[in-house]
Amino acid sequence: GEYFSSLDNLITLHQRELEKLQNIKKSMLEKMFV
Q1: How far apart are CA 29 and CA 9, in angstroms?
Q2: Rounded Cα–Cα distance for residues 25 and 11 (Å)
Q3: How far apart are CA 13 and CA 20, in angstroms?
Q4: Which is nearest to 12 in space by CA: 28, 4, 25?
Q5: What local confidence, expressed as pLDDT, does residue 2 receive?
Q6: CA 24 to CA 33: how far, in whole Å?
Q7: Which key words are in the record (predicted)?
Q8: Is 27 helix (H, G, I), strand (E, B) or coil?
Q9: How far is Cα 13 from Cα 30, in angstroms, rounded to an integer?
Q10: The whole model's pTM is what?
Q11: So what's the pLDDT on residue 13?
Q12: What is the pLDDT of residues 1-34, one digit of tens each?
């Protein structure tokens, strides 16, 4: 069970990083088009 809980933590961590990157990309695109 220990292994899978740490795996879950890794996945949520990566999802947060992805969301951050997507937000940055979105704001950059908005700045370019304004």
Answers
A1: 30
A2: 21
A3: 11
A4: 4
A5: 83
A6: 14
A7: Endonuclease, Hydrolase, Nuclease
A8: helix
A9: 26
A10: 0.61
A11: 96
A12: 788 899 999 999 999 999 999 999 999 999 988 7
